[in-house]
Amino acid sequence: MKIKVTTLYVDDQDKALRFYTEVLGFARKTDVSQGPYRWLTVTSPEEPDGTELQLALNDNPAAKTYQQAIFQQGQPAAMFYTDDIKGDYERIKAGGAEFTMPPTGVTGSTIAMLNDTCGNLIQLTQLARY
Protein backbone atom coordinates (compact mmCIF):
# COMPACT_ATOMS: atom_id res chain seq x y z
CA MET A 1 0.00 0.00 0.00
CA LYS A 2 1.01 3.61 -0.60
CA ILE A 3 -0.29 6.95 0.59
CA LYS A 4 -1.14 8.80 -2.60
CA VAL A 5 -3.41 11.66 -1.45
CA THR A 6 -4.06 13.32 1.89
CA THR A 7 -6.64 16.04 2.49
CA LEU A 8 -6.31 19.45 4.06
CA TYR A 9 -9.49 21.49 4.49
CA VAL A 10 -9.29 25.16 3.48
CA ASP A 11 -11.77 28.02 3.62
CA ASP A 12 -11.01 29.24 0.08
CA GLN A 13 -9.51 27.03 -2.62
CA ASP A 14 -8.23 29.87 -4.82
CA LYS A 15 -6.51 31.54 -1.86
CA ALA A 16 -5.09 28.17 -0.77
CA LEU A 17 -3.77 27.45 -4.27
CA ARG A 18 -1.96 30.80 -4.34
CA PHE A 19 -0.49 30.26 -0.86
CA TYR A 20 0.62 26.67 -1.39
CA THR A 21 2.16 27.36 -4.81
CA GLU A 22 3.41 30.96 -4.64
CA VAL A 23 4.44 31.12 -0.96
CA LEU A 24 5.32 27.54 -0.03
CA GLY A 25 6.54 26.54 -3.50
CA PHE A 26 4.42 23.47 -4.17
CA ALA A 27 3.23 22.70 -7.71
CA ARG A 28 -0.38 22.40 -8.87
CA LYS A 29 -0.99 18.76 -9.75
CA THR A 30 -4.72 18.40 -10.43
CA ASP A 31 -7.42 21.06 -10.75
CA VAL A 32 -10.75 19.87 -12.11
CA SER A 33 -14.29 21.02 -11.44
CA GLN A 34 -17.71 19.50 -11.91
CA GLY A 35 -20.48 21.86 -10.96
CA PRO A 36 -19.73 23.28 -7.52
CA TYR A 37 -17.23 20.48 -6.75
CA ARG A 38 -13.51 21.13 -7.31
CA TRP A 39 -10.76 18.52 -6.96
CA LEU A 40 -7.57 20.49 -6.31
CA THR A 41 -4.21 18.97 -5.40
CA VAL A 42 -0.64 20.18 -5.06
CA THR A 43 2.58 18.23 -4.77
CA SER A 44 6.20 18.82 -3.97
CA PRO A 45 8.27 19.84 -7.01
CA GLU A 46 10.96 17.55 -5.55
CA GLU A 47 8.57 14.58 -5.90
CA PRO A 48 6.06 15.46 -8.65
CA ASP A 49 4.69 11.91 -8.68
CA GLY A 50 4.75 11.62 -4.87
CA THR A 51 1.99 12.16 -2.35
CA GLU A 52 -0.57 14.78 -3.33
CA LEU A 53 -2.10 17.27 -0.89
CA GLN A 54 -5.78 17.82 -1.65
CA LEU A 55 -6.90 21.36 -0.83
CA ALA A 56 -10.55 20.59 -0.12
CA LEU A 57 -13.17 23.27 0.43
CA ASN A 58 -14.24 23.24 4.04
CA ASP A 59 -17.98 23.12 3.52
CA ASN A 60 -18.50 20.08 5.78
CA PRO A 61 -19.68 21.15 9.28
CA ALA A 62 -17.82 18.30 11.04
CA ALA A 63 -14.57 19.04 9.22
CA LYS A 64 -14.95 22.76 9.89
CA THR A 65 -15.40 22.15 13.62
CA TYR A 66 -12.33 19.89 13.66
CA GLN A 67 -10.25 22.40 11.68
CA GLN A 68 -11.17 25.28 14.00
CA ALA A 69 -10.54 23.23 17.15
CA ILE A 70 -7.05 22.07 16.21
CA PHE A 71 -6.15 25.59 15.03
CA GLN A 72 -7.28 27.07 18.36
CA GLN A 73 -5.23 24.45 20.23
CA GLY A 74 -2.14 25.38 18.21
CA GLN A 75 -1.92 21.96 16.56
CA PRO A 76 -0.59 21.70 13.00
CA ALA A 77 -2.97 20.37 10.37
CA ALA A 78 -0.02 19.19 8.28
CA MET A 79 3.74 18.76 8.63
CA PHE A 80 6.22 19.23 5.83
CA TYR A 81 9.83 18.12 5.99
CA THR A 82 12.73 20.21 4.76
CA ASP A 83 16.50 19.86 4.55
CA ASP A 84 16.97 23.62 5.10
CA ILE A 85 14.50 24.95 7.64
CA LYS A 86 16.28 28.29 8.10
CA GLY A 87 16.44 28.90 4.35
CA ASP A 88 12.81 27.88 3.86
CA TYR A 89 11.78 30.01 6.84
CA GLU A 90 13.43 33.09 5.30
CA ARG A 91 12.03 32.37 1.81
CA ILE A 92 8.48 31.73 3.06
CA LYS A 93 8.54 34.70 5.43
CA ALA A 94 9.71 36.94 2.56
CA GLY A 95 6.71 35.63 0.60
CA GLY A 96 4.42 37.12 3.23
CA ALA A 97 3.67 34.13 5.46
CA GLU A 98 2.97 34.70 9.14
CA PHE A 99 5.00 32.39 11.36
CA THR A 100 3.62 31.63 14.80
CA MET A 101 6.91 29.97 15.76
CA PRO A 102 10.32 30.64 14.20
CA PRO A 103 12.74 27.74 13.75
CA THR A 104 13.09 26.22 17.21
CA GLY A 105 15.22 23.30 18.31
CA VAL A 106 13.32 20.43 19.91
CA THR A 107 14.37 16.86 20.65
CA GLY A 108 15.71 15.35 17.43
CA SER A 109 14.66 18.16 15.09
CA THR A 110 14.09 21.84 14.42
CA ILE A 111 10.52 22.97 13.82
CA ALA A 112 8.73 26.13 12.74
CA MET A 113 4.99 26.85 12.59
CA LEU A 114 3.09 29.10 10.21
CA ASN A 115 -0.47 30.15 9.45
CA ASP A 116 -1.57 29.13 5.94
CA THR A 117 -4.20 31.93 5.83
CA CYS A 118 -6.84 29.29 5.03
CA GLY A 119 -7.63 28.08 8.55
CA ASN A 120 -4.63 25.86 9.28
CA LEU A 121 -1.33 25.84 11.09
CA ILE A 122 1.48 24.15 9.18
CA GLN A 123 4.62 22.77 10.77
CA LEU A 124 7.96 22.69 8.98
CA THR A 125 10.39 20.10 10.32
CA GLN A 126 14.08 19.49 9.75
CA LEU A 127 15.40 16.31 11.33
CA ALA A 128 18.61 16.56 13.29
CA ARG A 129 21.68 15.06 11.67
CA TYR A 130 23.81 13.03 14.02
UniProtKB/TrEMBL annotation:
Organism: Reticulibacter mediterranei
PROSITE patterns for this protein: VOC
PANTHER family: GLYOXALASE/BLEOMYCIN RESISTANCE PROTEIN/DIOXYGENASE, GLYOXALASE_BLEOMYCIN RESISTANCE PROTEIN_DIOXYGENASE
Protein name according to UniProt: VOC domain-containing protein
Domain VOC: 2-127
InterPro entries per the UniProt record, alphabetical: Glyas_Bleomycin-R_OHBP_Dase (IPR029068), Glyas_Fos-R_dOase_dom (IPR004360), VOC_core (IPR037523)
Domain of life the protein comes from: Bacteria
